Amino acid sequence: MATTDTRNAPDTRFDTCPQVSRPRLGRAACRMRADLSAGPETSATLGMSIPMIRSLVTAILGCVLNFGMSPSLHAQTRPSDASLLKEQEQAADRLTQHTYPLRYKFRPGEVLRYEVVHQVQVKTTIDEQTQVNRSRSKSIKCWRITGADAQSVSFEHLIESVDMWSESQGKDPVQYNSQTDSKVPVEYEGVADVLGKPLVHVQMDLAGRVLKREDQAVKVDLGAGDITVPLPPQPVAIGSEWSAPSSVRVRLSDGQFKTMQTRQLYRLQKVASGIATISVQTQVLTPVPDARVESQIVQKLTNGELKFDIDAGRVVGRQLDWDESVVGFSGAASNMVYLARLTENLVINPKVAGNPSKPNPIRP
């Protein structure tokens, strides 16, 4: 009887998830994604839109202000219609505009673990020759809280285990599970060398702003992005935005290196059951000179959302998606398509990372 190799079973979960796409880099750099500030505002408490609630409150206030007044007295004391409308709108704003304080909360000795899954497919075509590279990694990252007070938090960041798989067209797949494999492939030796060791010691304020950073080992990029997520300095309402500066170093056509200025734009989308949903998107501020530079930047862009537990004071999950296409990065007849997804979820008792299944090609 034939048996099925579950080790290489298709990862259909990734395929069925919707893709998130954005305009090309050049347009995003010019427009700065002004439409992010638009969108419906909703009341997490009542399930009604804030404009609807404001209209209801305004109507009630109008009845209260006019109730019990004789026509003659009303005519003598009533302010102008414009003034009355303004007062009603201001009162409605005060009643409906609730704000949420977003702050990190940790205790000394606390240990947080996150399961991080990163899946990537890169398809390149040059002079009608196409190559597809795919990879998938699952890792357990850990924060060890070494100190915490009313102003700041200190922690060590490390990777406890990894399970990695990659495949390049025309080559055999390469796989490494740190929990089960004694032999480390050459491609993953750098990762294996730092497992279980503190990668960096960080001190940050309660809004996630890094005050001090000491790198303890060579930086290993597993696609998880920045170590900390910055939070707004003041309590914010639904629809509020804040940003954090960032940068990307690229190599120009003449061989010189250039730092491209970017920023991470965050927006509080909603709050439900104490969990804040925050969207995040990278905006490129420096004009992109050509497609070759653009092809280097696409992997550093982010577009997705994260979940923040307001009472517990920590990120409990996030998902980032990439869906980028660059034409002409290596000649007129060249094209690159970059598709990826990263998920990260807080776990209480993480299990040993299982074998990563060989993923199906990501749908364009």
Write a concise synopsis of the structure shown.
With 364 residues, the protein is an alpha+beta fold. It contains seven helices and 14 strands.
Q: What is the overall shape?
A: globular
**Which structural class matches the secondary elements?**
alpha+beta
Which fold name corresponds to the CATH topology of the largest domain? Answer: Lipovitellin-phosvitin complex, beta-sheet shell regions
Percent range for helical residues? 10-25%
Query: Which stretches are low in confidence, meaning pLDDT under 50 for 5 or more residues running?
Result: 1-48, 64-75, 350-364
Number of distinct helices: 7
Rg estimate, integer Å:
26 Å
Mean pLDDT: 78
Give the SSE order as H and E letters. HHHHHEEEEEHEEEEEEHEEE
Number of domains: 2
Beta-strand level of the residues, as a percent range?
Answer: 35-45%
Oligomer: single chain
What is the CA–CA distance across the termini? Answer: 36 Å
What is the makeup of the main sheet?
Answer: 12 strands, antiparallel
Assigned CATH class of the largest domain: Mainly Beta
Query: Would you identify the CATH architecture of the largest domain?
Result: Roll
- For the secondary structure, the number of strands is 14
